[in-house]
Amino acid sequence: MSSGFVSGTHAIATAIFGLLRPQDTILFITGKPYDTLEKLINGENSCSLKDFNIATQICDFLNNNIEIFLGNNPKVVYIQRSMGYNLRKSLKICDIENLIKKIRKISPTSIILVDNCYGEFVQKQEPTEVGADLIVGSLIKNPGAGIAPSGGYIAGKKNLVELCEQRFLAPGLKNMGATHFNREILMGLFYAPLAVREALKTANFASKIFKQAGFEVLPGPDEERADIITAINLKSEENLKIFCKCIQNNSPVDSFVTPEPWEMPGYDHKIIMASGGFISGSSIELSADAPLKEPYTVWLQGGTNFYLAKYALINALELILKR
């Protein structure tokens, strides 16, 4: 764990490069990963996996015959717990456990790396308790409770964590430099389960009222949750803008701002994002984002203050239905 990680993507990249060497293969077994990893995979002259001659394969374990991909014994198998911008269900711990058992049966030497972002503290177990070798995440999401100002973590098997540590610092350097376990990080970890509870209440409420209003939601209000995210198909670009505007206008910071779509680094479409929290980029505080493309789905995250989030969501739904 370190405040030196600037984002979850930074922590993921550190883990991937810490584990892989030229000629190795990484298999993204849960489909195309977050858009922010595209440059890490295929970037030209940008220290990408492609630049280092590291092969990447992408398959969707729900729709593909994974035995074919695992039969090549990839060095690393990457599992993304959250849905990201894919309209699939996020993976519960039991889902991850079953997937890991399949991987171990076919490719027992593969290192299993789980992107744990948005899923921490949602269920009673974490992926390392059901067989994952490493988990990676961001402290400005669930584990930071909207209090930690920066940072990320890599946790799991000691020898693998040490490889990642040397990638993060420099070869031969371990346990060096200030750890920066400051008050905000420790306080965030302490309050994280409570913050996640509020975020889950927000997610369920959003799912319930938008489904009742006739919008498609994922997951549904009665489904067991794997993370704090709710995807809502708002059907039009204008509805997306209204929704994000309401989330922003009912946030504690920069409530006067109107979100506008922009060319966000790492994405191939314009993104509209509402995030009026105290920590920039903190997805555990109330936030929403969406690519401006069909089917015009918005991804709602967080809500550490359920009552404020409830007000914002009702306001958004009222304006959308009036339109």
Walkthrough of the structure:
The protein is built from 8 helices and 11 strands. The mean pLDDT is 91. It starts with 7 loop residues before the first helix and ends with a helix. It folds into 2 domains: 8-184, Type I PLP-dependent aspartate aminotransferase-like (Major domain) (Aspartate Aminotransferase, domain 2, 3-Layer(aba) Sandwich), CATH 3.40.640; 193-322, Aspartate Aminotransferase, domain 1 (Alpha-Beta Complex). Helices cover 33% and strands 15% of the residues. The radius of gyration is 19 Å and the shape is globular. Helix 6 packs parallel to helix 8 and helix 7 packs antiparallel against helix 8 (306-322). The strands form 2 sheets. It has a 6-stranded mixed beta sheet with strand order 2-1-3-4-5-6, sandwiched between helices. It has a 5-stranded antiparallel beta sheet with strand order 7-8-11-10-9, covered by helices on one side. It is α/β, with parallel strands linked by helices and 323 residues long. It has helices at 8-19, 38-42, 66-70, 93-106, 158-168, 183-212, 237-249, 306-322, and strands at 25-28, 55-58, 76-80, 111-115, 134-138, 152-156, 216-218, 230-233, 271-275, 287-291, 297-301.
State the domain count: 2
What strand order characterises the main sheet? 2-1-3-4-5-6
User: In the CATH classification, which architecture of the largest domain applies?
Assistant: 3-Layer(aba) Sandwich
Number of strands: 11
Please work out how many helical segments DSSP would assign: 8
* Largest sheet descriptor: 6 strands, mixed
- First and last CA, distance: 46 Å
Could you spell the SSE succession in H and E letters?
HEHEHEHEEEHHEEHEEEH
CATH superfamily of the largest domain: Type I PLP-dependent aspartate aminotransferase-like (Major domain)
Note the overall shape: globular
Radius of gyration, whole Å: 19 Å
Average pLDDT, all residues: 91
Strand content: 15-25%
Provide the CATH topology of the largest domain.
Answer: Aspartate Aminotransferase, domain 2
Structural class: alpha/beta
